[in-house]
Design a protein that fits this description.
Structural class: alpha+beta
Strand order of the largest sheet: 4-3-2-1-5
CATH class of the largest domain: Mainly Alpha
Largest sheet: 5 strands, antiparallel
Low-confidence stretches: 143-147
Number of strands: 5
CATH topology of the largest domain: Na+/H+ antiporter like fold
Strand content: 5-15%
Shape: elongated
Distance between the termini: 34 Å
Number of helices: 19
Length: 471
């Protein structure tokens, strides 16, 4: 398995570099590497690696969703909350209806089997969409993703149960959707708040804080598995809720953890997209052929209409609405995860459903990723005074946050950061820090204090100071 991991790293990085040279998102190259190296093509990856592929992909997905949570501000939720709730169900519903209308005639399957296929195709891939959205945010471009996966997976279980003749209470299953969402958010907010209190009381080093957050997030997904037969829990929403509550309570701590997660993502991204590609059986996708492609395109047309309908009444202009439509195209993780379930459950057209699901990944993941980047670059304007420029200054100069203790390397004196401001100096982003000499007084603000402005042109903070941690 170690050799397989080395192949994923080396080939993934090479593909990422080459594809980016073509102005195409690097994840497309990683997906291609996965398809070629996977068991359905050249079979370079060991069986042991494929056996644990699901766990690796889940951990990588957790990393990127944590990063999304640490970018999720309350004012953003207040601004787009209603539209986000609508978009969690309406586009997927439209796509399911579109597939149901054309699949029986094109693929020669029943209407119930067509609905099952529509539920599989109806989920957009957070693994593809979220990293691209965060990249735009990191660069200060226009500033979603979330719950339609929960919606379509619940519908999928309903219709699959109906196919098998099981005793399915449709109303009860539909009621599971808001319950799953609410419990998912709750099981994220509670541990997230305790982590915030822990980080406030104990001054841990940023890597240890990040690992603690990552460990708790992984446990949440385990809780979902344990509870799934008794109560539905959308644990991935809980993962995002952890970042949200820490950001709300301590923005400084949240930014530090987010930056560390950004570094972890470099490795996690390789694992996620190469292993997602390795799940794709290109021979099965070939069987879907032209008819399968027409079904997928029809579903996307209906989905696009549903997305546009969901955005009526929002302050977005038509270009930004177009961007949202394009952002809802990519499919990968959910289709790879549940595409084979109908076949395993004995559904008569299970092979056809699997073939179309696989084909949807091959068609929409790279096309959607490229579309998001191309449309986003043209549609999303740079904010003149973007708050993300302050993050660039902080990261470049390696500045401390309020509450952290620092030592002057030459003088040996210890100071504590007690105040911080983000401001603009002649169109240049600057961070103002005020330090209190804790050795000279027992009460912050009563003894000697000093303050500095830090701008992009200054030398790194670490050249003159070092940040002190308890552990």
């Amino acid at each position: 398995m170690a050799f397989s991991l080395a192949l994923i790293i080396i080939l993934g990085l090479c593909a990422d570099y080459l594809i980016r040279r073509l102005k195409i998102p690097g994840l497309v190259g990683m997906l291609i590497v996965g398809v070629l190296a996977g068991p359905y093509m050249f079979d370079f990856l060991s069986p042991e690696m494929m056996k644990v592929s699901g766990d690796f992909r889940r951990i990588a997905l957790i990393v990127i969703l944590l990063r999304a949570g640490f970018e999720l501000r309350r004012d953003t939720l207040n601004r787009v909350g209603a539209a986000a709730l609508t978009m969690s169900a309406v586009p997927a519903t439209f796509e399911i209806i579109g597939v149901m209308l054309v699949a029986p005639a094109l693929l020669h399957i029943t209407y119930l089997e067509a609905v099952i296929l529509g539920c599989i195709l109806g989920a957009v891939s957070p693994a593809v969409v979220v990293p691209l959205m965060i990249d735009f945010m990191d660069r200060g471009r226009g500033t979603k993703k979330g719950m339609d996966d929960v919606f379509v997976i619940v519908l999928f279980t309903v219709f699959l149960g109906m196919y098998g003749g099981g005793d399915v209470n449709i109303l009860a299953k539909i009621a599971e959707i808001p319950v799953s969402i609410a419990l998912g958010i709750l099981v994220g907010l509670i541990p997230g708040y305790f982590l915030y209190r822990l980080f406030t009381k104990y001054d841990w080093r940023p890597p240890k804080r990040t690992l603690a957050v990552l460990g708790v997030a992984i446990v949440l997904t385990w809780v979902e598995e344990v509870c799934k037969d008794h109560v539905p829990v959308a644990s991935l929403l809980g993962v995002m809720a952890i970042g949200f509550i820490i950001l709300e309570k301590s923005e400084a701590t949240a930014h530090v953890i987010s930056q560390k997660l950004k570094k972890i993502w470099v490795f996690a991204e390789l694992l996620l997209f190469v292993l997602v590609g390795a799940q794709v059986n290109i021979h099965v996708a070939w069987q879907a052929g032209f008819a399968g492609t027409l079904v997928i395109l029809t579903g996307l047309i209906f989905r696009s209409i549903g997305t546009y309908v969901s955005l009526w009444g929002t302050p977005l202009n038509y270009k930004e609405k177009l961007f949202c439509v394009v952002a809802y195209i990519p499919k990968a993780t959910v289709q790879a995860a549940i595409g084979a379930v109908p076949l395993a459950a004995g559904v008569g057209s299970g092979e056809v459903i699997l073939a179309v699901a696989v084909l949807s990944i091959l068609l929409t993941a790279p096309i959607g990723a490229v579309g998001i980047m191309l449309v986003g670059e043209k549609v999303l304007d740079y904010e003149e005074h973007s708050v993300y420029k302050f993050r660039d200054v902080r990261e470049k100069l390696q500045l401390p946050h309020v509450g952290e203790r620092v030592r002057h390397k030459k003088l040996g004196t210890v100071w504590k950061v007690i105040e911080e401001k983000e401001l603009w100096l002649d169109e240049t982003p600057a961070i103002w820090l005020r330090f209190w000499g804790e050795e000279n007084s027992s009460k912050p603000g009563t003894g000697k204090t000093i303050s500095y402005h830090y701008t992009p042109g200054k030398a790194s903070f670490q050249e003159e100071w070092e940040i002190l941690y308890d552990w």
